[in-house]
Every structure is written in C-alpha cells, then in structure tokens.
From TrEMBL:
This is Transmembrane protein. The keyword Ligase does not apply. The keyword Membrane applies. The chain crosses the membrane at residues 75-95, 107-139, 151-176, 188-211, 243-263, 270-288, 294-313, 325-344.
Length: 649
C-alpha cells in the first residue's frame, strides 16, 4: 500500500515537471517596449564589459538576464536550463515535503500545487522565486538542523545578489541575522556558522571579478536607487472601484494568516513568523509602489506560497489549522486574481477569457476567433515547444525581424561612433546594433534623485562621453518632461551641439553631437528663499535659464505613509506669462538637485529653442505654487534656491 502511494506521488511529480516545462522556455528573444529596453541594455552592458555600480547603475545586476531570459551573445542558453532545473528541483522538494505532512490529504497538495503554478508559473519574478527558496532552505535548516539547507541558502543569496541587487541587501541581512540566531539558539555549531559565512563572502567576492562588479559602488548605488524609488515611481494605476475590492482581499488574507499565528502562537515558531511577515511586507511594498494590474497580481500570487511555509514549518499538532489557513488564502488569492484578469480584460467576459492564452494567440482570438486557435495554445504550451527552443535557439535570431529600423541617414551619420539615447528607447540601439555608450542610470525615469542625475551628468562631461546622443522630450507619470535629468541637460549645453532632428517610429528625436571644445555655463546669480505649500513663489525675471532647487521634507505622517504604502504626492502649479496654468507631479529628490524652472519646455519645439538659444523666445514662467492633496504629509517650511545661468556662446 505504501509502495502504491509513493508511485502515485512520483507520477504526480513527473506530471508536474511536464507542466513546468510547458509553461517556460529555455531562453527568450528581444522585445520592443520600455521594459524590453533595459533587458537589452543589460545584455549590451555585459557584452561591453561595463563595470556594474560605476558604468551601469540599475536595480538588476550582471546575472539579471536569469530574470529576463534575454541572454548576452557570450552566454549559453544552457545556463538558463540549469537554473530552471534547479528551480524545478526546489519545487519538487517542497511538494514532497507537503505530501509527507498532508498524510491522507495528499490530493489537496496535488491540486494546490497546480493551482499555485498555473497558468502563469509560480511567481513571475525569478529573483523573488529564488528569494522564496532561500527562505524555505533557512527554515528547513532550522527544522532539521541539516547544514545542507544553509549551504543552499547561501548559494541562493549570492545568486540573488548578482541578479537583483536591491532585493539582495535584504537577503544578506536575513542570512547573517539567521546565522547569528542559529548559533545563539544552538541549532548549529560556531564552526558551521563561520564556514557558511566565510564561503558566502568568498563566493560573493570571487564572482565580482568574473562579473565585473565594483561591490562598494554596486551597493552604494543600489541604496541610492532604493531611497528614491518610491518617491519617483509611486503611482495609482487602478481606479478606486478596482482597487478597493482588491484591498479588501489583501486585508482578508492578512487577517487569516494573522489569526492563525495569534491563535496558534508558539515561541519556537517565532523565526518562521518573522520571515513570513517580513516577506509579506516586501511583497506588499513592491506591488503597491506602482499600483497596477500586474504588480498587484504578483502580490496575490506570492500569498499562497507564503502560506505553504506556514503549513510546512508549523508544529505537527497545528498542521490541520495551518492547512485550513492555507486553503482559505489560496481561495482568496484565486478569486482576487480572477478579478484582476477581469479588470485587465476591460471589464468584459471576453476580455477576461483572453488573458489566459499566449499574447499572440489572444490577439488573433480578439480579432477573429477560430477553433483552430485552441490547438495553437496547446502547441505553444507543451514540453515539446521547450525542447524545440532548446535545440534551435540562436542569439542572431534577435535581429531577424527588427521592429524599428533607424533612418538610413542617421545610421550612416553615427556609423561606429558611440551613442546613447534619452529617455529610455534603448531598443532602437540594440536592434540596429549601434555602439552603445550609455549614461550610468540608463533610463531617465530611474534617475529620480539629485545623486542619480549627477552621475548621468558626469558621464556626459567625462572623457568617455558618447559621441552622439539621440534625445526626446517625453513625460513620465504626470511629471514635466523637462524637469528630469537636469545635470544631463547642463552637460548637453556645455559639451554637445544639437545638429539634427529625426523621426523614429513616428516620434521626433533630436541628435546631439559631442564637441571637442567645451563651452562654459556660468552662474550669474543665486537667491535663497523660504516658502510653504500653497504659497505663490514669484520667479526672477530673466531671459537666461534659471534652475530652482529645494529641500522638501516629509512630515512624520508623510514618512509613515511612505513606509507603509506610498509617499504623499507633491505637485507644482505653474503660471505662465500669458496667464495660463499647468500642474505637474514633482519628485522631491529630483527637486533637491534642481530643475530648469523659468521657461516652458514641454514640447520638442520649445526644447529645440532651449538648446539652441537658451529658450529666450520660449514662454516664460512667472510664478509657481507647490501643493499636495494631503498637505499634512509634508513639513511646514522649506528652503529653496534660484540659480541663474548664462548660456554658452
């Protein structure tokens, strides 16, 4: 009888493995959107041996392609296969342990495993998947006192460090805090703890040479990105009618897990409770910075796996209650994610159904449904498709169907010279195989603090500055399109000449060319002011460009809102000399570095005049007023400064 049970379990694990390979591919190809752009930038940075932390500053590190699936030319796709096999190994271990704990309820484990995993895979983000396995092996090491768990945890921590650096900071803190706890609580000997710590440090340090990482700069830049990320990226993309029901489901899941912990609390499980709570909070923060369909969907996907940890590592006498809590959370997750699919499907049943097939098949079904398209889904979602990609993958296939081809005169002009593109359309450079030489913060929406803007400006003033810059004025999340990259704009004024205008994919871009002789941008006058929210600030009257900088700080209420949800939004009302007004979202840490304030530069024509003659003929700004819907989130008084510059001759 026991043998029959083992055979059924093994058959299910084989079936699960087939499902796993049906829902994934061993490597991906380049795309053409804002996220695809940084995928491709990462590939080009690796191919050009950029130093991460200095030449390349981003959330993702030199192994970030394990998350994106887009491989550098020099990396074999078999590396991705190895990572996927390791991922599958972890899944199967977790399922086997759940089978063992469930006893006669193994069928619940089997159904739950499939419901968690399908149809989009376990967790969309590879770095968070590995983070989950990291937590699992730490808890397994504590429960079994087996050092193999510690060994796997430290290997996973190093992988995460070079995939997604901001998450790895949390991972390293958890690892070393856990090692100290394991020693103090006598789970492991001091010798074992020291060996794991030394191995982790040695592996991290050794890989930094192989992967071209300046570890101090890598960590320092990541801390700057983390500090400004919420302020620059926070936005509500859901309607109130969409968000409130989802928030209710989030609260219900938290209540179920919280009640289980409170009612069945055990001191020996405190470590488990802390890890689960911390991970819940990190998932919540990641999903609720930019509150959109996909981010909140990802949050719900992570809730059931977290409940699995509660089930696996709760004391045996409480396993029934832990199992019930898991089932309730799984049901809540399924209902919530179906609601999100309905929202994504434009609030229609047909749109909801079309969120399930692969994107290309869904588009065909949307235009004209045919029964044969069902077979297309089966054709794309099966292990044979995985094997076909495994044996036919070729890096050069990225360039077979180029989505955007640059104008021939622009390609001829740039030739083999180095080039960067602003604000984020790196895809154009990748597909046209230009000599990519970017500013360190590769996409302008990420340069959302004074320090990050300064790094980009320094690049354009350095000896390694790109010969050409393809530049476009483009707004991001309600911000003024010219109130970003101030140091970069100054560098363009000093070291570059606007030489051409071009159309790429129906969008207008400027072409700047580096000049051998730098021009001077002098400060003519400086004026300090003190101001409050909802107070008019009159601007200096001048034909020269004026930069305004200010330190706008959050109040205690604002800091708490920023910590637990989102920072309060800051806006600026601009009044022009013709009496018209506009409102823009303002990022406090960008404002600290300064913005060009006294001229209207929101269109390409206005930007052209600014770079050619200082915008002397552009519409002038006469006054500004900072305001916030929730004014209590900011301090009462702020200090600011106007700096007037003379334009270079």
């Amino acid at each position: 009888m026991a043998s029959a049970k083992i055979t059924k379990q093994n058959l299910f694990l084989v079936f699960f493995s087939l499902v796993f390979f049906s829902l994934s591919l061993p490597a991906g190809y380049a795309g053409a959107d804002i996220d695809a752009s940084w995928h491709e930038a990462l590939v080009m940075a690796i191919e050009k041996n950029f130093v991460f932390g200095r030449d390349f500053i981003f959330n993702y590190g030199p192994l970030g392609y394990l998350n994106t699936g887009l491989l550098p030319k020099t990396v074999s796709h078999l590396l991705l296969v190895a990572v996927e096999l390791f991922t599958l190994f972890n899944y199967l271990i977790i399922i086997r342990l759940a089978f063992a704990k469930a006893g006669t309820k193994r069928w619940v484990v089997a159904i739950s495993a499939l419901l968690i995993f399908m149809p989009w895979g376990f967790i969309a983000d590879t770095s968070f998947t590995l983070f989950y396995f990291f937590l699992f092996w730490l808890l397994h090491a504590q429960q079994t006192r087996n050092s193999i768990g510690l060994l796997l945890a430290f290997i996973l921590s190093v992988l995460i460090f070079y995939i997604k650096v901001n998450l790895s900071i949390v991972v390293y803190i958890i690892l070393y805090a856990s090692l100290i706890y394991f020693y103090v609580a006598r789970y492991f000997t001091l010798r074992t703890i020291i060996i794991i710590a030394v191995l982790q440090i040695l592996l991290t340090y050794s890989l930094s040479f192989i992967l071209n990482v300046d570890i101090p700069a890598y960590l320092g830049a990541s801390m700057k990105i983390i500090d400004s990320y919420q302020d620059g990226m926070a936005i509500m993309l859901l309607t109130k009618e969409e968000f409130l029901p989802l928030l209710l489901f989030e609260a219900l899941i938290l209540a179920v897990a919280g009640l289980f912990i409170i009612l069945r609390f055990q001191w020996q499980s405190l470590y488990l409770y802390i890890l689960v709570s911390l991970t819940w909070f990190l998932s919540f923060k990641q999903a609720h910075t930019a509150v959109g369909h996909y981010n909140v969907f990802g949050f719900f996907l992570f809730m059931s796996p977290l409940a699995v940890l509660l089930y696996l590592f709760t004391a045996e006498k409480y396993k029934v209650w832990a199992g019930r809590a898991f089932v309730i959370i799984l049901v809540l997750q399924i209902v919530a994610t179906q609601m999100i699919r309905y929202y994504m499907g434009e609030h229609t049943i047909k749109g909801y159904a079309l969120t399930y097939p692969p994107a290309d098949v869904a588009q065909e079904m949307k235009e004209d449904f045919k029964p044969v398209q069902i077979f297309r889904i089966i054709q794309e979602k099966n292990p044979i498709n995985y094997l076909q990609r495994l044996f036919t993958y070729d890096y050069e296939d990225n360039f077979k169907n180029i989505p955007v081809k640059l104008p021939q005169d622009l390609s001829d002009k740039i030739g083999n010279a180095s080039v960067d593109i602003v604000p984020h359309q790196i895809t154009y450079l990748f597909f046209n195989r230009l000599n990519y030489n970017p500013r360190p913060v590769i996409q302008s929406y990420q340069a959302n603090s004074d320090w990050l803007m300064q790094k980009n400006g320094e690049k354009y003033l350095s000896k390694t500055a790109p010969q050409y810059v393809i530049y476009r004025v483009e707004s991001f999340r309600e911000q003024n399109p010219f109130w970003v990259e101030t140091d970069l704009a100054k560098a363009l004024l000093k070291n570059y000449q606007l030489t051409d205008t071009t159309l790429i994919a129906k969008d207008t871009f400027f072409v700047f060319q580096h000049q051998q002789v730098s021009k001077t941008l002098k400060t003519v006058s400086t004026k300090a002011i003190t101001f409050k929210l909802d107070e008019d600030i009159n601007l200096p009257v001048s034909d020269n460009p004026v930069v305004f900088s200010a330190d706008i700080n959050y109040s205690l209420k604002g800091k708490l809102a920023r910590l637990f949800f989102q920072p309060p939004y800051l806006h600026c009302q601009v009044t022009y000399e013709n009496g018209k007004q506009e409102n823009f979202r303002v990022i406090d840490k960008i404002l600290r570095g300064g913005i060009f304030i006294n001229q209207k530069v929101t269109t390409h024509a206005e930007a052209a005049r600014f770079f050619l003659n200082g915008g002397k003929t552009d519409l002038k700004v006469t006054k500004i007023r900072f305001w916030a819907k929730y004014g209590g989130g900011f301090s009462d008084n702020f200090k600011g400064q106007f700096q007037e510059y003379t334009m270079p001759d």
